[in-house]
Amino acid sequence: MTGTPHSLLTTAQIEATARAVHEGQRDKAGVPYAEHLRAVAEGVRARGGDEEQIAAAWLHDAVEDGKLSQEWLREAALTRRTRDIVLAVTKRSGEPPEAYAARILATPGALLVKEADLAHNADPARLAVLDEATRTRLSQKYTRMHTLLGLVAGDRPA
């Protein structure tokens, strides 16, 4: 991470913060939400992401889910790039998917984080435990976002 190393939160501290603020939260399949955050962070790492992107992966849903405020994000000892990525992947109420995708594409480093997020969200094993209507709705939503982001079919899980 860029900046003065002793003044920034470490990736381990960011992970601990994310796990703490999402404590008790479960995903649609009933799995502890921290498992999704871990999977996205690992997906970023596996795709060659750097420490700033991995940090953003741990925090990618914290503002959107109301677990951390934008003020916290602004004041936290994070790099500007990590903050920018988190804000880019944070959906805004009423925002059209096209605007959301455009913001991600315009923010350096954000596409890789969103790609890892989509890969985990669209994992067939993860979707398989959901009811058919939810599975279909989410699959369509994730496919549309892949298209808007210009991700090729090979980028998606089978």
From TrEMBL:
<protein>
    <submittedName>
        <fullName>HD domain-containing protein</fullName>
    </submittedName>
</protein>
<dbReference type="Pfam" id="PF13328">
    <property type="entry name" value="HD_4"/>
</dbReference>
